[in-house]
Amino acid sequence: MAVTVDTGRPPSRTSAPWVAMYHSVADCTDDPYRITVTPERLDGQLAWLRRRGLTGVGMADLLAARARGRAHGLVGLTFDDGYADFVGAALPVLRRHRCNATLFVLPGRLGGDNAWDPLGPRKPLLTAEGIRHAAAEGVEIGSHGLTHIDLTRADDRVLAAELGESRALLAELTGAPVTGFCYPYGTVDRRVVDSVALAGYDYACAIDPGPLTGPLALPRVHIGQRDTAVRLYLKHRLHRLRRRPVGGL
User: Fold this and answer.
1) Nearest to residue 28, comparing CAs of 87, 98, 73, 83?
2) What 3-state DSSP class applies to 11?
3) pTM of the predicted protein model
4) Backbone angles phi, psi at 81, to 5 degrees
5) Which segments of 41-84 are extended strands (E)?
6) What pLDDT, on a 0 to 100 scale, did the predictor assign at position 3?
7) Which of 112, 174, 104, 199 has the alpha carbon at shortest distance from 142?
8) Is 192 a residue whose pLDDT tops 70?
């Protein structure tokens, strides 16, 4: 979980924001990529965050609050890939702790599964109806591309489609603007960042973009089933040491 130490002072707007990266919320017995947390673990992680006076919010809200200098006590929560379990398992836990999140989905795989993970297990993805349900509950919907490919290996035509068509499809599906993007696999280079800007996104989430860190390549902290209180605290400390002010954040 992305956390901050409560110092009583607003966080600096010149440092990268705290953003937690989740994926699936379900049974994690068979989880070779460690992308799954159980609902019980998510509940404990959000409870830990809330005890420290912190609230999880979606990315657009977090960045807007930072721009106003009012992000103290806020952390970003993101869920990648758009797994069907988000609605039934993650959303009730978020609501119980009065938190919100951004859900990054793949409009080219509606109702499909995570075929890009060769080791499995197959996990169903949200249908159009499921995405609309999440949006109606106030969850921010962002694009994860059309089909979950490594964009740094895509030619210009495919790259443009993954960025532009996915944004247009999601805007039509939800009836709301789509301002956020998330890089599949977290892979990013300068060409892809520039293409995200050209496609009209306001921000984009990566994992550890290094010198590209900025509003269109925001670093995030992976959160998994093993992340109990001690590990969350250590991840917080590591983030504070590694993230440097870059790109107007």
Assistant:
1) 83
2) coil
3) 0.91
4) 85, -25
5) 55-57, 74-79
6) 32
7) 104
8) yes
